[in-house]
Amino acid sequence: MRLWSLHPKYLDSKGLVAVWREGLLARAVLKGETRGYKNHPQLHRFKKQENPLLYLDNFLNNIYHEAESRGYNFNQKKIGPVTLKEQITVTQGQLQYELEHLRGKLKIRDTKKYQELTQIDLPLPNPLFYVIPGDVEPWEKLKDKK
Q1: Can you tell me the distance from the alpha carbon of 74 to that of 65, in angstroms, rounded to the nearest whole number?
Q2: Domains of the chain: total
Q3: Does a structural domain hold residue 1?
Q4: d(CA 9, CA 16)
Q5: C-alpha–C-alpha distance, residues 79 and 34, integer Å
Q6: Which of 7, 20, 98, 113 is the most exposed place for a label (fewest CB within 10 A)?
Q7: Which residues on neighbouring strands pair with residue 34, listed in sequence order?
């Protein structure tokens, strides 16, 4: 499960569909409708909010709007309405880590999108998040441990 902190505009079509599907899975986990993924690290930042489902729905609405702008037909009825103005923090280090992770995926599956991302130094977050200084988030499972 990857609930990207990056703005969804950076995702290719496969990534956008995947984050929507995985976000819906995360929603089911938060609602207690699944057995698996209950302790998945990607859910940590949502679970520590007073109303995790509200924040996840906000996250998914941002995904929905990006998909809609590309002409995709995601079902917004699968998520709750959002009246949330609050944001969750994300560190600059986390955004940079995710940008590199996404570049690695796109280098193989979508070279045009990969080329676009090579021009980005400071990525924007999903609008649910606001950026603070810091390293990679402690909940992240790092792929390139040295």
Answers
A1: 9
A2: 1
A3: no
A4: 9
A5: 16
A6: 7
A7: none
Whether 99 is covered by a domain: the verdict is yes
Distances (CA, A) of 35 to 26, 29, 32, 104, 139: 12, 8, 8, 31, 21
What is the pTM for the complete model shown? 0.91
**Euclidean distance between CA atoms 32 and 12, whole angstroms:** 30
Q: How far apart are CA 32 and CA 75, in angstroms?
A: 21
Per-residue pLDDT at 100: 96
Query: Residue 52 — φ and ψ, nearest 5°?
Result: -55, -40
Question: Which three-class secondary structure state does DSSP give residue 132?
Answer: strand
Say if residue 98 is exposed, middle or buried (CB neighbours under 10 Å; 0-12, 13-18, 19+).
Answer: buried
Q: Which domain holds residue 117?
A: 8-132
What is the token pair recorded at 116?
Answer: 């676009």
Nearest to 76, CA basis, from 142, 27, 133, 11: 27
The rounded distance, in Å, linking the Cα atoms of 75 and 60 is 11
